[in-house]
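ok so for the tutorial part 2 we go from a plain amino acid sequence to predicted structure tokens. step 1 is just haveing the sequence, like this:
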Amino acid sequence: MEEKFDCIIVGAGVAGLSAAMTLANNNMKFLLIEKGEFPGSKNVSGGVLWGNDLAKLVPKYWEEDAGWDRYINQRRLTFMDDQSTFTVDFKSSHFNEPPYAGVVVLRSKFDNWLAEKVQEAIDKSDYAMDSFIAPNILVEEILEEDGKAVGIRTGDEKFYADSVILAEGVNNLLTRKVGLQDKYVPADHMLTGIKEIIRFDQKVLEDRFQLNGKSGMSNEFVGYATNGVEGGGFLYTNKDTISLGLVLGLKDLREKGQKPYDILNEFKKHPVIADTIRGGEVVEYSAHVVSSGDKRVMPKKLYKAGLVVCGEAANLLMNAGKAIQGMDYAMRSGILAADTITEAKKNKDFGDAAMKKYQDTLSDSYIMKDINNFQDAVHLLHDPVMTQKMPNLICDFGRNFFSIKNEPTKKAREMLSDSVKKHASYWDLIKIGAKGAKSL
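step 2 — the prediction. this is what the tokens look like for a chain of 440 residues:
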């Protein structure tokens, strides 16, 4: 029998790198395979990495001027109509102390930096010469014997291991091939994310968004941003750029005959957004598919003998209105996957029951507890009343409330009543209120 690894990890995104770091810290022998030229080279996403798992993987990461761009101390939720915005804005110095509640990252830079940290951990382990990060390799098949994963095939070469961690991303072809994901995922459960990176002089950016040092801001948009298509918008402040983009429902795009880039261009022409990006230079455009956060698209089983699935390959993502969470789910699930493999090696048991412990710990983690608890909120965010009527109503009320005219001023309740009659109905408000109370 050929020499084999304790584990082979497929995919060097956040989930795969977090699993690799955990294995290296537990003195495991592993192979981390990435199809790109280097970790992050094919990852066009970015945004906010929430939580403190990064501080566990890389203690005092905040002392390094690499990998991440800014920490978040300001959050905004903006409702839009065709001319106006109404924003809920929260900023607090409580978020200024590390470990930060969230950091803004550009994935090509962040993943490459985290891979360097993984290599440092490998070099400190007993397997400094036997564990590897292997880029530019496409895994074509998971090798199985008697229903157990025993390795991978790439081209004519085969590599063997006691276990496999699939962290291949949302286009989870291998997860499908081993029978853990349905062959076909309905388009109404998938979204497309499109994004532009817009560069500014750093001082201009910091003055415009009232940033100090490495502080940063995240902003989500609901309403006119998507031109009537299911989804929403986002803006994140990087070091000297912003990430501006949309997340749009694939099924709704197709049915309404609209193109993502046309919607993004209209979004950028909105008077408020046009003022925000004035003077910036577009330096990058990218697009990728993401899960809607509906748990019905998740594989029912995330394990089989010798194998576990984590990160976007397991469709671990959620947007319940408070934040878009995906990278933190990927990081935690990668850590839990590696913990399961580490325990399996100690017990010399990589069977189905041993791998099931991964799904058990995932179910007991904040990831699945939140996904289960906030499914109603996920569905609510995709309700046309919430994405179209409510933003128009809120902006109309704001326009009236903040307008000073040389005539008698109506009470706020009268203004609200006028806006409700114009853009929705009290029945719509009752339904949304009831759903909101139940979901949040």
